[in-house]
Amino acid sequence: MPVAIVTGSGGLIGSESVLHLVEAGYDVIGIENDMRREFFGDSASTQAVTDRLVSAHPEFHSLDLDIRDGEGVERVFARHAAEIELVVHTAAQPSHDWAASAPQVDFGVNANGTLNLLEATRLHVPDASFIFTSTNKVYGDTPNRLPLEELETRLELPRGHPYHDGIDTSMSIDTSTHSLFGVSKAAADLMVQEYGRYFDMPTVCFRAGCLTGPNHAGAMLHGFLSYLMRCTLSGDAYTVFGYGGRQVRDNIHSGDLVRAFEVFHRAPRAAAVYNIGGGRRNNCSMLEAIALCERIAGRPLEWTLSDTARTGDHRWWISDLSEFSRDYPDWEQQYDLEGILQEIHDQNADRWSAVR
Predict the structure, then answer these.
(1) Tens digit of each residue's pLDDT (9 = 90 or more) over 58-94
(2) Is 314 left (phi over 0), alpha (psi -120 to 50) or beta?
(3) Cα 143 → chain centroid
């Protein structure tokens, strides 16, 4: 039976990848050490997800391993080299706010951890597809230079602007403020590309906007839609940072992203790079997301507006999906924004309301 390695297997995208790959007939080896608990506290722990996956799926094997442990990572790859066909790398320190509190941890996990995985792949399974969940933060705050118009509930690009339908990979990653998180992810992103080009390995960077879904353990510093719905249901106060709440994000469901992984693996390329997200179909401002959460939950959210924006944060981000759709026309999104929020609500309402 073919083997897939999934890092961060207890997280949102990692766990979705595990389920998808088990159903596709893989033995899945998860690399997960629950650093989300260290980053964001007990409520963000991935341990319960890992326990459920292990209990329900005998094809899934979870290893308590830190990707910064290069020797440990290589041992896993060497042990299963004959069967590994796919590496899905989702493990990360995911918050650009948290990164400033511990830059060495952030860079160690995001950059050095990725290098360890690439080198183990090169040494033992160079033909395996290497899929990396990168981020739109590699572009730094360059999107904030766009000529945005202030509308009632959102910032928006004028029609006719080259990026109106979404930002593509032609945007420079240079001469901008990235946040330390953006730098560590950019280093990993470039290394994934370099291994693809230099060693002719099938690698891809998916530069994602907001990743979301009902299994997201949203926290104050990470997991926008999940945490917003959680606060709406629990009664916890929510703080919107800057831009009058009109900053725009696109949002992609974890299931749609993992299906993008699948179609890439069916026809892999070397050193591929794509912006991926909700695109024009699934985007919203903070104000619009708050209104949707309140309508779905049937209760108001207690929130305040801070005049201070987060360092390196985007005023407006919508991904141009045309590059990926051109190369992989079989892929399309199955979830819309309201459906995503409804699913987050329905799966978590009892638990989050109990907090209130």
Answers:
(1) 999 999 999 999 999 999 999 999 999 999 999 999 8
(2) beta
(3) 19
Please answer whether residues 276 and 252 qualify as being in contact, where contact means their C-beta atoms are separated by less than 8 angstroms.
yes
Q: Could you read off the pLDDT of 143-157 as tens digits, one per residue? A: 999 999 999 999 999
What is the length of the chain? 356
Section 296-314 average pLDDT:
91
Whether 232 contacts 155, CB under 8 Å = no
Residue-by-residue DSSP string for 171-237? S--SSS--HHHHHHHHHHHHHHHHHHHHTT--EEEEEESEEE-TT---BTTB-HHHHHHHHHHH---
Beta carbons of 26 and 1 less than 8 angstroms apart: yes
Best CA proximity match to 256, nearest among 277, 226, 273:
277
Q: Do the beta carbons of residue 212 and residue 344 sit within 8 Å?
A: yes
Give dist(CA 208, CA 146) in Å, integer.
19
Cβ density class 228-254: b for 16+ within 10 Å, e for less: bbbbbbeebebebbbbebbbbbbbbbb
Q: From residue 350, how far is each of 269, 292, 309, 356 by CA, in Å?
A: 44, 19, 32, 10
Other C-beta atoms lying within 10 Å of the C-beta of residue 290: 21
CB-neighbour burial class of residue 346 (10 A; exposed 0-12, middle 13-18, buried 19+): exposed
DSSP 153: S
Give the pairing of strands 203-208 and 149-150: unpaired
Contact predicate 261/205, CB 8 Å:
no
Q: Measured between alpha carbons, how far is 165 from 177 in angstroms, rounded to an integer?
A: 24
